[in-house]
């Protein structure tokens, strides 16, 4: 059996903005620390996404001690910094797909900065630790909770899957199109599809649902430009039940610090490798 080894860890502190690569990260009950803890919402309280607002791909988030900084990738002077604990005290009901939960408004000043940049009224909200948003019960084990991610605490993709895709594309793309939390080496392309129960650094993970992809993966994260790829090519060989599949959604049990270059120990498979 091939050895699987964790090569990259990513978090996306503000949903749909640029991610941060880490060598190690604490995993908590709701997922990796700070992952999708903040989110932009429109006037109706619905989350704002790169799917419609490609400019979000050019906004890079950094965490410096107690502060978050958001800066434009092509114009670093266009930036804003605020404290991780910053909040106005106003709880707002927000919508993430079919779920409704509460978000704490961060700052009127931060709202204005994002609104000016996007040309529409938006607010930045934070999920408080005590807020509970549950994973889809069809795939949950024990009422697992999640922050503002689309539906599950973590996403894993094998590097072999991207390598295979890039062999089929005229212009290779980066893994950041797919916004994984974990990337690993080893195995055949899409071998993560076969995972059932596995372990990273003593934390138990369960692969519960393939990740269906949308037009977001057609947005170049370095330029903010949208095209037809890689969705067009993936449709030719990764289509299942009219959905394009790339990566596996995960739930987990336990907490701890996860570090890159750690072996991924698979305890059971859904199907033979």
UniProtKB/TrEMBL annotation:
MF terms (GO), sorted A to Z: catalytic activity; molybdenum ion binding; pyridoxal phosphate binding
Pfam families: MOSC, MOSC_N
Domain MOSC: 127-267
Full protein name: MOSC domain-containing protein
Lineage: Bacteria, Pseudomonadati, Bacteroidota, Sphingobacteriia, Sphingobacteriales
